[in-house]
Amino acid sequence: MNRFAYLTTGLAIRTLAGLSKARVHLHGTDRIPRGPGIFVINHFTRVETLFLPVHIYDLTRLPVWSLADESLFTDTLAPLFDKVGVVSTADPHRDRLVVKTLLTGEASWIIYPEGEMVKNKKIIEHGRFMIAYAGGSHPPHTGAAALALRTEFYRQRIARTRIDDPAEAERILAHFDIGADLDPATNQAVHLIPVNITYYPVRARENLLSRLAARIKNDMPERFIEELMTEGNMLLSGVDIDIRFGTPIDVRPHLQDPRIQADIRSPGPINLEMPLQSRARMRKAALRIMQNYMSAIYGMTTVNHDHLFAALLQLSPFRRVRSTDLRSRAFLAARTDWPGQGIAIHHSLADNQIHLLTDDRFGKFKDFCAILAARNGNPAAHDDRTRPLELVKDATLFGRGIDFHRSRIDNPIAIMANETEPLIPLRRRLRQLAWMPRWWIRRCVVRTLIQEEQNRFEADYQKFAVDGESHPPKVGRPFLLKGRRRDIGVVLIHGYMAAPMEMRELAEPLNGFGFPVYAPRLAGHGTSPADLGNRRFSEWIQAAENGYALINTLCRRVVVGGFSNGAGIALDLASRLPDTAGVVAIAPPLQLQDMSAKLVPAMDAWNRMMALVKLETARKPFVDNAPENPRINYHRNPISGVHQLERLMAAVQSRLPAITVPALIVQADQDPVVHPDGSKKVYDRLGSTDKTYVLVNFKRHGIIRGDGAIRVHRLVAGFLEQTACKRTTPSGDAATGPERPGQP
Is 469 contained in some domain? Predict the structure, then answer.
């Protein structure tokens, strides 16, 4: 190999990669052993044959050679391939070159055991590894294992003959054109390193490269057009490329068979082309090793949202699957501890998955539905709970009768599902979820959400509670009051420095009317002021979204309500979440009465700066608080918390025109904390045509508890009843009746 050409080609590939929007993530690089090795890798695109050698070289500092199909060695490409270390599979000296470079440590090798690109990702057939290709199917090749075995066979034979038969040792070295020095050929054992490459998302679309190629040549082969549409789109539109290196496989134990050892010790010359007496044993060993690295390669597939959606749809016993139902099943699948079961997941699955149950803000499900819409005409309509979108499985969706070379265009859903087949624990769990009745899925989602919130509170309380300052756990624990109604439910969000118990006096009468009610605990509340001082308003919103998802699972529609800071969060949810039926904002803190609140951002910045320079005595992180409800609220107010409250309301204020659902704003006319003018501004800026502003005669802030609070309770209950009577969708279509448990 021309080393200069190799390095300059690598530089060119890096330059092209810099222009690409693809994001490469390397995992398990610490597993790569020192010295030469054979990297066995799954083969899905042509681009990996370019960038993989560069990445492996960067990690090992050894040149990386690779085998390529003989059809690629045209008069134009053959000289380039020769210089950068690409060898034809039909080269008569191929095996000798591989063994030589591995013995001397000159280079590592990349070998694709499938033998060609597996565009449909179909590699399991009747429980066995079988590679599907354009003309049929075949078992994976054992060539990588056989070459590793022969390399170690000769390494051991050289080590033995250098003492017992130096002439034979010299002959072997000459046979491989190594030279007289024996040490390089006996230093380091070669390993097989399984590698998996997973791309996400994989979308075949027209792109700059495919359009440019079409202009250059009109009669371009269909196969080439498909590759440009798929791989060009991946490079230009952006794709995550997860490259995982598995545990190296040491082939030396497989050479301990007595017959193989007899060949290693046998007198007389043994060349690479000569059949060994132990060839049958070597073939069996190669087969076992191949099964080992194939399991390792495909066991490292990086599972993503597309995998969950596609496999759940494939495994579903129903021809029609409601989108809300599929998202709920995917949520439960995503909440499984896959890393604990040895299954790798895409980084987006490691984050909070509540978006699958609420607004799909990252477009995971929307993108999947777009593929279905292009594939079989499924509508990409708005998915509301009164008339849910249904996904339809047609006869060819998962697989039969699709041209192999068009599979990435015509059958992407099948490719996604096929990629999960080797992951047995994943498939078992997904099959279980796909067959569960819908009412049981809803129950599991609710139970999961409740348990997670309870566990989060218990962990925070144990970590942050302070004797003499924190209230008993029952004050801060989130609660659910189940009701008989399924048409509408309500989320009640407590205020700043308070806890879920603050909402119980309002929750119980509403529940008495049959409405299911959930009161979430906002992060930093119900524990201690020190906990609240380290929180961000985004964490408060996340807790409220969990509550929204819970009620959204129990009921067809959701009203979000809150008091004070909770009112601000309720308005935020109503501006973003599509299934919201109405919003109740009681004393939203858009404008605070205390003029010193204007100094909060400066005080918070001062405290953070003093913390950085470690001048604790100059900090003033808390101010004293005299709460109306001393058995619920904190007695110390963190400055940073007030700053987060103001940031929340500033963010909500700009989104008020986006709220178009029925709204109820309630405010005390003599509130000592929140100025009524602020609540009136909230009302005026709402985009709703159906909105109500009520000013009640109270001289306190906490109007949802204590004397006279029943007036507020009746206002909220009446609003819920009126909202429940509005049985039309945003588009004016009539709503459907209650869904029956177990209905497909």
Answer: yes
Report the distance separating Cα 187 and Cα 159, nearest Å.
Answer: 10
What is the pTM assigned to this prediction? 0.86
Which pLDDT tens digit goes with each residue over 185-201?
556 789 999 999 999 98
Q: Of 588, 582, 589, which Cα lies nearest the Cα of 717? A: 582
Instruction: Please state, in angstroms and rounded to a whole number, the distance separating the CA atoms of residues 324 and 390.
Output: 9
The pair phi, psi for residue 580, each rounded to 5°, is -65, 130
Asked, for residue 740, whether it belongs to a domain, the answer is no
The answer to which of 364-368, 497-501, 508-512, 587-591 has the lowest mean pLDDT is 587-591
Q: Which two tokens stand for residue 13?
A: 């590939």
**Alpha carbons 351 and 459: distance in angstroms, whole number:** 19
Average pLDDT on 679-707 reads 93
Mean pLDDT on 722-737: 54
Q: What are the helix and strand counts (H, E) for the chain?
A: 27, 23
Predicted pLDDT of residue 739: 36
Q: 566 or 618: whose pLDDT is higher? A: 566
* 240-245 and 64-68 strand pairing: unpaired
State how far the Cα of 45 lies from the Cα of 236, in Å rounded to an integer.
Answer: 15
Which stretch of DSSP H or E encloses residue 12? Answer: helix 3-19
Residues 432 and 445 in one domain: no
* Tokens matching residue 383: 């998915």
Measured CA angle at 506 (ends 501, 510), to 5 deg: 125
Domain count, the chain: 3
Helical packing angle, 412-420 and 305-315, nearest 10°? 90
**What is the predicted pLDDT for the residue at 254?**
95
Q: 525-543 burial, b for 16+ CB within 10 Å, e for fewer?
A: bbbbbbbbbebebeebbeb
Q: For the chain, how many residues are written? A: 744
| Residue 555 belongs to domain with CATH number | 3.40.50.1820
Both 9 and 139 in one domain: the answer is yes
Q: Strand pairing partners for 80? A: none
Residues of the chain with pLDDT > 90, as a percent, come to 53
3-state secondary structure of 739: coil
Q: Sort strands 691-696 and 557-563 into parallel, antiparallel or unpaired.
A: unpaired
Range of the domain at 50: 3-202+239-299
